Amino acid sequence: xxxxxxxxxxxxxxxxxxxxxxxxxxxxxxxxxxxxxxxxxxxxxxxxxxxxxxxxxxxxxxxxxxxxxxxxxxxxxxxxxxxxxxxxxxxxxxxxxxxxxxxxxxxxxxxxxxxxxxxxxxxxxxxxxxxxxxxxxxxxxxxxxxxxxxxxxxxxxxxxxxxxxxxxxxxxxxxxxxxxxxxxxxxxxxxxxxxxxxxxxxxxxxxxxxxxxxxxxxxxxxxxxxxxxxxxxxxxxxxxxxxxxxxxxxxxxxxxxxxxxxxxxxxxxxxxxxxxxxxxx
Length: 281
Hints:
41% helix; three-stranded mixed β-sheet; 281 residues; globular; 11 helices; alpha/beta; 12 strands
């Protein structure tokens, strides 16, 4: 029997509210009050998010962030820094005991990302899911990387022509899996590297050049193919259909419940909107 997930389109929200909603849905799903949920959202203002374990004061150039009027938030998930701007951001929230959900984080990532793969293909892009074969490969990439998320491969990576096309992160709490990530329509590499700290300008320039060879946005690929750029509505349609197809689920449009909204508002005040949380490490 086909499982039905709730599908929420939140539009653009503040950085703190975006993270608070993801956690609120996770909490209420763990209590059996809301179904598995796919959510699409954007960011207002454009925002730098960092992973749960990153050291904000060592890795973020706050003066530049303020000068560019960008938002800032710490995610509940791991991974590295992401500049959220011209993108489709998604979150998937589902119980660990959902049928067919692997116990392993990396295998669950593979299952949940299958729908993203179908979304890219619906846009006419030949995306593939590749795995890093060994621990040596993982270490090699990590040693060469920067604080930027798209510079850091996961065990399973979505790539087009060898370049990363989506960056995702996952956390498990209360028996629930939360995976969220960025599907870049366009990417401003210079702005991303301006708001991250590096030991020197020479190191920044070297890593920026390396990053450009490892990551690519959808519309860079479209232009290379001589095709029209993809707008947000087209991306939402492609990835909504792709996720339903790849996951073998039905999506039912829905909204947050009053209890989810109330909890999200509280989490903004107590956590994601607070300097203590965002600067905690």
